[in-house]
Amino acid sequence: MRVVLLGAPGAGKGTQCKRIVDRYGVSHLSSGDILRRNRSEGTELGNKAKSYMDAGALVPDDLVVAMMVEAIKEVSDKGFVLDGFPRTVNQAEELDKTLAENGESIDLVLNLQIDDQIVMQRMTGRRSCPKCGAVYHIENLKPKVDGICDKDGTELIQRPDDKPEVVENRLQTYHRQTEPVVDYYRRDNRVYDVDAGKSVDRTSEEIYGKLDALVST
Ligand code: AP5
């Protein structure tokens, strides 16, 4: 299974990817998580990415493509779900080229659709585990103990790019640079639109319906 999850910031890509991994045993490759890991480890890539991420802009394509191609090579046998990549048409073309070299392609693109107003409410209430990447919400998806990760007991944090003014920029960046990626994949009917404004469970059910059909073919 080679699947891409597209959608605005806060559409629920990370939340749904973690459930897809649990159910289907594929690898989860999140460009945002990999960039944040590089930042916390102080790598050259992390240092270059920092100013773009903090402003809600995209990190340059050449850096992200090289990073993700490397990550995909490591997990390609097991199948994967991509979260946050590709985010420009150029990235999508590079991804298709890389996969085609091994006779592979993206099987399905799940396009999580959501209104901008809902995004703002989700982002300001999001809390994340800096260790395992688990995602919570202070109202919609609470951890068992306030402020603590259920999985590893680490103290949860608020991402620096979840400040309202940065979220605003991320949304604009999404509409300008990432929506055309949906049209790129629509050209050969690879897109399935998902209403991501529903609850986490109902959104998962819709996604599982589509993925169950994919794995049984
Ligand atoms: P990235 O980390 O990819 O951020 P994003 O795409 O903006 O997405 P988020 O992680 O913010 O949201 P999500 O859709 O995963 O939502 P979540 O499940 O957490 O990227 C960060 C930055 O890195 C970018 O701005 C850019 O600078 C850089 N970058 C990354 N990839 C790049 C690329 N390919 N090219 C260039 N630059 C790149 O859910 C959000 C909240 O809502 C949570 O609290 C959750 O609990 C809650 N929630 C989720 N679903 C529901 C629901 N159905 N109902 C109620 N609440 C819900």
Number of helices: 8
Radius of gyration: 16 Å
Main sheet: strands, sense, barrel:
5 strands, parallel
Reading the helices and strands in chain order gives: EHEHHHEHEHEEHEH
Report the helical percentage. Answer: 40-55%
**How widely separated are the two ends?**
11 Å
Describe, in plain words, how this protein is organized in 3D.
With 217 residues, the chain is α/β, with parallel strands linked by helices. It is built from eight helices and seven strands, in the order βαβαααβαβαββαβα. A five-stranded parallel β-sheet has the order 2-3-1-4-7, sandwiched between helices. A two-stranded antiparallel ribbon has the order 5-6. A hairpin with a 6-residue loop joins strand 5 and strand 6. Helix 2 crosses helix 3. The longest helix is centred in the C-terminal third of the chain and has 23 residues. The radius of gyration is 16 Å and the shape is globular. The mean pLDDT is 94. BIS(adenosine)-5'-pentaphosphate (AP5) binds next to helix 1, helix 2, helix 3, strand 6 and helix 8.
Summarize the SSE layout with pairings.
Layout: E1 2-7, H1 13-24, E2 27-30, H2 31-41, H3 44-55, H4 61-75, E3 80-83, H5 89-100, E4 108-113, H6 116-124, E5 126-128, E6 135-137, H7 164-186, E7 191-195, H8 200-215
Parallel strand pairs: 1-3, 1-4, 2-3, 4-7
Antiparallel strand pairs: 5-6
Helix pairs in contact: 1-8, 2-3, 4-5, 6-7
This protein binds BIS(adenosine)-5'-pentaphosphate.
Can you tag this structure with a few keywords?
binds BIS(adenosine)-5'-pentaphosphate; single chain; 217 residues; globular; two-stranded antiparallel ribbon; alpha/beta; 5-stranded parallel beta sheet
